[in-house]
Amino acid sequence: MRFLLIRLSSIGDIVLTTPLIRALAERFPTAEIHYLTRKQYKPLVEHHPLLHGIHTWPPSEWIVQTNWDGVIDLQKNLRTLPLRWLLKAKHFTTFPKENWRKWWMVRLKKRISIPHVVVRYAQALRPWGIEPEGIGPLEVFVPPEIEKEVQEELHVKGGTHARWLAVGLGASYVTKKWVVGYFQQLLTQLEMPVILLGGLSEAEEAQTIAQNLKAPTVIGAGRYSLLHTAAALRQAAWVLSHDTGIAHLAAAADKPVAVLWGNTIPEFGMTPWKVPQCHIEVPSLPCRPCSKLGFSRCPQGHHDCMRALTPDFVEAKLRSFWEKN
């Protein structure tokens, strides 16, 4: 048998599809499992031992001409719809996005229970006798040389027994991001070794936050690749992140994750999967959620969903969470 999983973007969404790889491999041990994604996200699945082929978008002629037993479209949008028309497969499956429920929550500011996205992804496997219940953990595989490189840097900075807090600074939308000055105040108060993670767009923020920190600090933002970031998360004791890919990479590393929620809410079904977690959000803010994704600026002009999460409030939530984990 031969299967093709499709998820083009982004970091968190791709990581959240990884339980399906193992579920298929366990159900069909001799099957070939292939994955199609965008080039920049290929490292997230490139070293998975159960994948037989990783392909990048746009799809090659080989993908179009191959006879597939199953094509599992976990992107399910206008980019992948024409591809489904071209591919040769016995079964095509997708998953319930539940966008109408999210739209309803945004419009009415009410919280409705939506199944977790991993469960919804797994519903696409039902034609092959795989049920969503009991679907496994997230998995991202890091080459030993990258693991060693990051581990050595952390040991030089903080010693072999440091208990690091990994902080994800990035987010796709400004309304998902906490205040930079709040990060600086919180980390000053915590006085613990910290790894600042993010992309190039967070490099300057990381430098600003790190300026006055007295505890050992490693700036990975703008320096670390996706797999270096995953390796750093594996070395951390705890993770603090926005509602974004770092939270899901941390879950793949089996780490306790605290999530700072801005314009989105946990009920959208994108919480860290199968790890201890703490949801830090402003209670009873009438304008939340304002979008299922986010905005470049607050539609109300105040950004209280993040500004009202003061460093003292977040510190209290974190310390309570860490005491239990």
Structure summary:
With 325 residues, this protein is of the alpha/beta class. The protein has two domains: 2-128, Glycogen Phosphorylase B (Rossmann fold, 3-Layer(aba) Sandwich); 144-324, Glycogen Phosphorylase B (Rossmann fold), CATH 3.40.50.2000. It is 36% helix and 16% strand.
Structural notes for this entry:
The chain has 325 residues and is of the alpha/beta class. It is built from 14 helices and 11 strands. The protein folds into 2 domains: 127 residues, Rossmann fold; 181 residues, Rossmann fold. A 6-stranded parallel beta sheet has the order 8-7-6-9-10-11, sandwiched between helices. Helix 9 packs across helix 10. It is globular, with a radius of gyration of 20 Å. The model has no long low-confidence stretch (mean pLDDT 96).
CATH architect. name of the largest domain: 3-Layer(aba) Sandwich
CATH topology name of the largest domain: Rossmann fold
The N- to C-terminal Cα distance equals 42 Å
Give the class-level CATH name of the largest domain: Alpha Beta
CATH homology superfamily of the largest domain? Glycogen Phosphorylase B
Strand segment count: 11
The total domain count is: 2
> Largest sheet at a glance?
6 strands, parallel
Helix-strand pattern:
EHHEHEHEHEHHHEHEHEHEHEEHH
Structural class: alpha/beta
Spatial extent as radius of gyration:
20 Å
Beta-strand percent range: 15-25%
Shape descriptor: globular
The level of helicity is 25-40%
For the largest sheet, list the strands in their spatial order. 8-7-6-9-10-11
Roughly what is the average pLDDT, rounded to an integer?
96
Count of DSSP-assigned helices: 14
Residue runs with pLDDT of under 50 for 5 or more positions: none
